[in-house]
Backbone:
């Protein structure tokens, strides 16, 4: 039960180089099961979700090593087909392993993912897609049993462009007989990275990044080496840290199309953002401008994973901003904590709220409600010249590598207190 003590008021500025994206490495780690061989992956963030996925891969018999950003997975000897309940309950996104497991084995059993703070997060679209690929599915006492009676390419038309369901369908279709055509697929950059990883293994996937993806099944995959794409959400979070504290930030290694949905909103708030030499330079606003309406939507819309952090930015703007969260039904839990810090937030409906900018925030003891909500509280604390205490930081460490040291390197006064 560790916590951060942040004494804000310092400019957050300097040069930054952020490792790979959590939401890219997790499906890629699931894909390492498919080649029955070695995968060498670089630029892997040292975050608890990665260590969790390592445990899952080891539990099915993979040999895994991780050091200094390089992950090596040897799935030659993997032979366990049941994923222990405790893993899926703790990390929802481990459900994406289902598609890879059934791509590799004739049968797999996995627990239903546990509840999640930000929403009910059903997996009906995942199961529907696997059934369309000929997988027989039995649901029994909280478990899902998948039988590979006849893994065959087919047409999958998603009623909603779910990221996880698109990834599970791709992972299962890679070794199916024939062609799979996915319509209304999710277009997130992390899916493109999964496609690139799989194709380096010898798969035939095309169209990721668009809403139509086509997969020609192959029989065998091979050893692979890959660099994970940079984490656009972590980069966006640090950009707001600088923008909020009048600091300039230079970030190495960014992908413009990945960053633009975020940069677009920061420009509306008065930031100057310039892309150059494969990186970006952010200049802070002289005055934070309010943004009339922020509506989250699937990529290339404004990402829900940046909603909380942008809300913190708007708590100190010169006017009124309205936030409409359209992806998850319970992703405003940071509002109550930000209000404890003096923000002026009013609910209009359970997923629409109005932020009226205030002069300054004030310190208090707050709790991270979830991963991105926790990051939003860290950003708020960086603007408060007294000590602010943030607890439940395990949420934050799930998706941000070494955040306290990175922030300290950019000028922040952050202390991590380990509590037994
Ligand atoms: C991925 O979650 C990300 N996680 C999330 O990031 C991100 O918020 C989300 O995509 C949207 O961008 C990972 O990549 C590991 P979805 P995922 O399936 O795949 C509903 C973070 O902070 N839905 O696109 O679970 C669902 O309930 C995390 O890094 C169904 O109804 O997202 C939700 O309302 C949080 N049935 C919406 O679709 C289904 O079968 C979007 O979910 C699947 C989803």
Residues:
């Amino acid at each position: 039960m560790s916590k951060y003590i942040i004494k804000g008021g310092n400019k957050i500025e300097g040069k930054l180089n952020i490792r790979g994206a959590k939401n890219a490495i997790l499906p890629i780690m699931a894909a390492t099961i498919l080649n029955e061989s070695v995968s060498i992956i670089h630029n892997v963030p040292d975050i608890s979700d990665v260590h969790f996925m390592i445990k899952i891969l080891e539990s099915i018999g993979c040999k895994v090593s991780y050091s200094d950003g390089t992950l090596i997975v040897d799935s030659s000897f993997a032979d366990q087909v049941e994923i222990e309940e405790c893993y899926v309950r703790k990390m929802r996104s481990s459900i994406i392993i289902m598609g890879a497991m059934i791509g590799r084995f004739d049968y797999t059993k996995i627990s239903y993912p546990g509840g999640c703070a930000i929403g009910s997060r059903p997996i009906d679209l995942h199961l529907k897609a696997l059934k369309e690929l000929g997988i027989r599915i039995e649901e029994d006492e909280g478990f899902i049993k998948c039988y590979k009676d006849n893994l065959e390419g087919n047409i999958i038309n998603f009623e909603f462009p779910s990221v996880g369901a698109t990834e599970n369908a791709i992972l299962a279709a890679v070794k199916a007989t024939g062609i799979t055509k996915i319509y209304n697929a999710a277009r997130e950059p992390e899916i493109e990275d999964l496609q690139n990883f799989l194709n380096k293994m010898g798969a035939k996937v095309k169209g990721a990044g668009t809403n139509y993806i086509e997969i020609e099944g192959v029989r065998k995959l091979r050893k692979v080496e890959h660099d994970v794409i940079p984490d656009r959400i972590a980069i966006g979070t640090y950009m707001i840290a600088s923008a909020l504290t009048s600091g300039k930030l230079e970030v190495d290694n960014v992908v413009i199309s990945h960053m633009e949905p975020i940069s677009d909103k920061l420009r509306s708030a008065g930031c100057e953002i310039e892309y150059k030499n494969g990186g970006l330079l952010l200049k802070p606003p002289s005055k934070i401008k309010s943004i009339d309406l922020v509506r989250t939507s699937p990529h290339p819309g404004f990402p829900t994973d940046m909603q909380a952090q942008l809300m913190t930015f708007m708590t100190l703007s010169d006017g009124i901003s309205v936030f409409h969260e359209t992806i998850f039904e319970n992703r405003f839990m940071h509002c109550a904590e930000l209000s404890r810090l003096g923000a002026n937030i009013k609910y209009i409906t359970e997923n629409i709220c109005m932020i009226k900018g205030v002069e300054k925030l004030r310190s208090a003891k707050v709790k991270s409600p979830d991963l991105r909500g926790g990051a939003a509280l860290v950003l708020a604390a960086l603007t408060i010249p007294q000590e602010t205490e943030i607890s439940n930081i395990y949420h934050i460490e799930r998706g941000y590598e070494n955040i306290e040291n990175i922030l300290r390197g950019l000028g922040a006064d952050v202390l991590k207190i380990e509590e037994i």
In short: The pocket of EPZ is lined by residues 22-23, 26, 93, 119, 121-126, 160, 162-165, 186, 304-305, 327-328, 371-372, 399 (CB under 6 Å).
